[in-house]
């Protein structure tokens, strides 16, 4: 197994092209994502915040409001992708830091952005998986018609990715206790439901609340789901489709900065 | 040796945590194929140094070059050369040993066709093969440590960092790990290990750096470090019996600068061991005791370590009063008055 002795006395590493590097990094990111899904899918905070919370929110704020089925589905899809996808980061990152397995990722020959992308895929995967519950239920049990299936696919993917990255941003705040990140991140996410067209539709909002809603990432997901499911969005699907990927990039950049800070502070 | 043969080159490393300085101006270089020991007491800054060498922690100032790559500018290239076994076994306890190794293999870009073979061989080497499919949370501490070493070896790194690899392990596991370090080194791996166990450094390392309270006190081979302390010589003797007044009597023998009790043996520090030996037999005769064993001792790495880390050893201790002698402390003053 150590046949390469002579070569290793003088460490020499091959030159690799950018394409080769990119392929390797993609593989590493995927390996990280798959490992995380296997390790963390059944941890209590994941089940609590990722699986139960969105449905709890939905039923406590929707029952008895006489909403249409399309509107309900769009709202549930926005809720699940938002809450579930963004729950993974604040659980996984602090846990990995606490048991120091995160160091294992940091000393590996992989760039930090790939590590964070891999971790974003975890939230994306959870978000998509949980969103399937209302989607399949809506289609089969309630016979909901989807106005634009292709746009729905884009909405599911775009919002899961962006919110998973939001979770990574939360999880990158230097702290080693999942609890001390989980709770504040929930407190930050929760009020967004009121200014993003989830509980109060965008077109029924007071002007000041509507103005505020542009600052909420969730607004763009909710609006896109409205377009996709019922064809009745407000601010233009094109805008939503541009803003969601931009948010993904913004959140990941923020997370990168926070990790740089951690390396300087030493956690 | 030209500098490009050094695979680890640390220059004037400083690390502060807030106002506290954890590492203060540490410089050393490790040549390819060397086993380099970083020896220091708890809190000396060993882990902090390892974390800076392995790109995990940014130095407050100073520079680290690994295999010719400045870790500040080319961390990725540096990381391709290294494996790290941290202080606490950082394995995924929810996964089995096999899955932990497979994940490491993918993370460290081990080609797909080599993964199974390497993992199997490592599991055999580390005695984990039989339990490879059991979740690691059911492993003992020693098994976890061995798994964490195996995970650091799956990509056959040119430079292996081990942070206190044997601390907290039983004698057998510690021996196994030392054996593995020797084998890896024999096959060309450069090893950087930290330890606070002097004997471990003595047995394993080509060179030892002694770090104390954030600064390097010495860097040299264990034997050369010992030679710097020829003044510390001793005779170790065990009698078939003896009373509470033994120590004071030994202390009064000519040439004895200090006395320390080590288990059932007395260690007598003296600049002239041969002259002391007959006196010990005379003494045994007077007291009607047997000399069970008698040895002369050169300075140990422990003596060097204790002196460099500012604790008293041997003669200097004797010269300054109570010193480090372990035996009969409560009653010694009385005995001397007798
Ligand atoms: N993240 C941190 N924040 C603040 N202080 C730290 C941090 N890490 C280490 N220190 C301090 O730096 C000093 C050196 O710690 P370090 O862990 O490097 O010691 P060590 O030699 O590895 O000790 P040990 O033998 O106990 O492992 C200690 O005083 C410690 O309290
Ligand atoms: Mg340490």
Taking Cα atoms only, what radius of gyration of chain B do you get, to the nearest Å? 24 Å
- CATH top level of the domain at 3-81 and 157-227 in chain B is Alpha Beta
Lateral arrangement of strands in the main beta sheet of chain B: 6-7-8-3-9-10
Question: Given the structure, what is the number of helices of chain B?
Answer: 13
Our measurement of the CA-to-CA distance between the termini of chain A, rounded to an integer number of angstroms, reads 37 Å
Quaternary form: heterodimer
Along the chain, the helix and strand elements of chain A come as HHHHHHHHHHH
How can the largest sheet of chain A be summarized?
none
Bound molecules: adenosine-5'-triphosphate, magnesium ion
How many strands appear in the DSSP assignment of chain A? 0
Structural class of chain A: mainly alpha
Query: First CA to last CA of chain B: what distance?
Result: 61 Å
For the report, how would you describe the main beta sheet of chain B?
Answer: 6 strands, mixed
Tell me roughly what share of residues is in helical segments of chain A. over 70%
Count of β-strands of chain B: 14
Cα-based radius of gyration of chain A, to the nearest Å: 20 Å
Which segments of chain A are poorly predicted (pLDDT under 50) over 5 or more consecutive residues? 1-12
Any low-confidence stretches of chain B, pLDDT <50, length ≥5? 314-338
Largest interface: A-B, 34 and 47 residues
Account of the 3D structure:
The complex is a heterodimer of chains A (267) and B (338). By secondary structure, chain A is mainly α. Chain A has one domain (22-59, 67-264). Chain A is built from eleven helices and no strands. In chain A, α4 runs antiparallel to α8 (178-192) and α10 (217-230) packs antiparallel against α11. The longest helix of chain A is centred in the N-terminal third of the chain and has 30 residues, at 69-98. The radius of gyration of chain A is 20 Å and the shape is globular. Residues 1-12 of chain A have low confidence and may be disordered. Chain B is α/β, with parallel strands linked by helices. Among the domains of chain B are: 3-81 and 157-227, Rossmann fold, CATH 3.40.50; 234-297, Alpha-Beta Plaits, CATH 3.30.70. Chain B is built from 13 helices and 14 strands. A six-stranded mixed beta sheet of chain B has the order 6-7-8-3-9-10, with helices on both faces. A four-stranded antiparallel beta sheet of chain B has the order 2-1-4-5. In chain B, strands 12-13-11-14 form a four-stranded antiparallel beta sheet. In chain B, α3 (97-107) packs across α4. The termini of chain B are far apart. At the A-B interface, α1, α2 and α5 of A face β1, α2, α3 and α4 of B. Bound molecules: adenosine-5'-triphosphate and magnesium ion (MG). Adenosine-5'-triphosphate (ATP) binds at residues 17, 22, 40, 42-48, 87, 196 of chain B.
